[in-house]
Amino acid sequence: MSRWEPNTRERLMRAAVAEFLDRGYESVTVAEITERAGLTKRTFFRHYADKREVLFAGQDILSRLFSGSIASAPAEATPVEAISAALTAIGEVFGPERREWARKVQVVVAGHSDLRERELLKRAKLRAAMAEALRERGVGEPAASLAAEIGGLAFTTGFQRWLEPSDERGFGELCREALAELVAATAALGRAPDHDSRDRTS
């Protein structure tokens, strides 16, 4: 009967991360995860392809949220404004109650190269989804891909800041702040260095 419970995915996720933190990611089997969750291996594989996917289950949802938010941005919005609107919408998913959970997941991911590679792949898919959504709005290349790269970097930077215990601001605010910094830095690439300013600080 457990397969009909509405919180099955969450139970598996929490059981998996608890096992990973307690015993080490490489040592944990799917059978041990399901035992801790009080579920079956069949139930596990209905929700996840393997134990790695438990840590990245929300990435496909994020891609759809980004695409939908970009598509629904005002017609007059610039590519960066459309990205900003998407980051704002994503911020509602990353509420304060998820912060400690995300920190635990990142501890597991940071300790294993194959998990870091999987994370990079998922983020690449996220940027691809943003670029495609921008192209569907009529944004040409290379602007669509460049805006998506900046948006992806803003998301990653905001996420890392959100995990910091010293910064309790909301996820969306942190991502928009990172986006503004990146846009300003991009604009500065076309300007010559301020030698006078550099001399004063040396």
Describe what this molecule looks like in 3D:
- With 202 residues, the protein is mostly helical.
- The protein has 10 helices and no strands.
- Helix 4 runs parallel beside helix 7.
- The termini are far apart.
Offer a concise description of the structure.
With 202 residues, the chain is mainly alpha-helical. Helix content is 69%, strand content 0%.
| Oligomeric state of this protein | single chain
Order of helices and strands: HHHHHHHHHH
- What is the molecular shape? elongated
- Uncertain stretches: 1-6
Mean pLDDT: 89
Beta-strand residue fraction: under 5%
Number of H- or I-type helical stretches: 10
**Which structural class should the secondary elements be placed in?**
mainly alpha
Q: Between the first and last Cα atoms, what is the distance in angstroms?
A: 69 Å
Largest sheet: none
SSE blueprint and pairings:
Elements: H1 8-23, H2 30-37, H3 41-47, H4 59-71, H5 79-91, H6 99-110, H7 113-136, H8 143-163, H9 171-188, H10 195-201
Helix pairs in contact: 1-2, 4-5, 4-7, 5-8, 5-9, 7-8, 8-9
Overview features:
disordered N terminus, 202 residues, mainly alpha
